[in-house]
UniProtKB/TrEMBL annotation:
Cellular component GO terms held in the UniProt record: membrane
Lineage, opening ranks: Bacteria, Bacillati, Bacillota, Bacilli, Bacillales
Protein name per its UniProtKB record: Spore gernimation protein
Any Gene Ontology biological process: spore germination
PROSITE patterns given in the database record: PROKAR_LIPOPROTEIN (PS51257)
Superkingdom classification of source: Bacteria
Keyword Signal: yes
Presence of keyword Manganese: no
Spore germination GerAC-like C-terminal domain mapped to chain residues: 201-354
Entries under PANTHER family matching the protein: SPORE GERMINATION PROTEIN B3 (PTHR35789)
Source organism: Bacillus swezeyi
Amino acid sequence: MTKGKRSLLCSLMISLFIAQGCSPFVENHEIEEISPVTFWYIQKGKKEKLSMSTLVPPVGLEKKRIFNKEVNMIKQAGKHFNLDYYNELENGQLRMVMIEEQLARKGVVSIINTLLNDPKTPQRLYLMIVKGDFEKYMLSELKQSEKFDFYLYQTLRHFEKANQGEMSIVNLHQFKNQLYTLFSDPYVPVFQTNENHFTYEGTALFKDDKLVKILAGMNDQIFQLIHNNKYLKILELPRLSVVLGQARSMVYMDLNKKNTSLSMKVKVDAGIEEYTGDKDLQNQREFRTLVKDVEAELEKQSTELLKEIQEIKADPLEIGGEALFPFTKPMSNKDWLKHWENMDVNVDYQVNLRPVVNSR
C-alpha cells in the first residue's frame, strides 16, 4: 500500500475509533425542533476556510432560504446553524454532497472521513463535483420551485437505477471503497452550473483523494463503455455520422508477466439508431466497412483515453488488480503505478452491429 493510501486509511481508522466513544447524554428531539438537511454544498472559503451552504427549512410550511457559513471544520456548520436558526440541524436525511471543483483539487479526505464518522449520515448519499456558482443557481431555482433539491435527488436516483451509462453516479460507500482499496482510485460525476442551468458534464477522476482530471464528451462515453456501466443507451460517433444504441460491452484485460504490456479486448453489441453518412447499409460490403470503421474509431478513442489516464498516474479502471498473479509476491501500489505509467497498451474492439431498417 502506498504511503498516501496508508496515511488516508490511518486517518480514517483513528477518527472512526474516536467516533465509537459512548456519550452519557441521549438526544431526544421533538419533530418540530429538527430541520433535516437534504444536501450540503461545500466550497473554498476565505483564509483557507470552508464555505458550506444548504436550504432551510427543507420541510414545513415556511419558505425555504439559503443557509451559508464559513467554517474551519464541517461539524462547525451544524453548530452555527443551531445557533442561528431555531430548529436543530440533522444529517439523517442527507442525500447529496456537492463539492466545488477547486476544493476537490486540493483534496477531499477530511470531508469524506467526517461524513463516514457520523453514524447519522447515510452511506448511500450521492457525491458530485460542481463547476460554477451553485449558490446563484439555488437563488434562481428558489424563485421557480422550492423543491428543486428534491428533483435533483430524484434525477440522480433515476439514473442510478436505470444504469444506462448516461452519467457516473457514485455514493459515499462506493467512493470510500475506491479510495481505500489497493490498485484503485475514485471517480464521481461532474456538473456544470450557472444561474439558470445545472447540467451533467462528465466524470471526475481522482488520484487518491485529489481531483486530477475531468472526462467529458467522447472520453466520458468510452469510460462508461469500458469500465463504469459497460453499457451505453446512446453512443455517438459523429466522425462516422452514426449513433449507436443499447451498446453493451464485455471487457477482457491481459497483462504480461513483466507488467510492461496491457492487452484490452472489448466486445460490443449495439444497434444502429441513426446514420447520416454516404454508405448504403443494405449493401453487405459497405455495411462491413462501417463496422470496421466503428472498431477503428473506438480503438483510437480508447487508446487515447488510457494514455491520458497513464499520464495522471491514476488507476480508476482498477487495472492493477490484473497484476496479482497466483504464487507471486504482492506488488505495492507505488510499484504498480511505475509500471502502469510506462506500460504499452493495445486495444482491440470486436463490434457486432444490428443493421438499421430502411437505411440509405
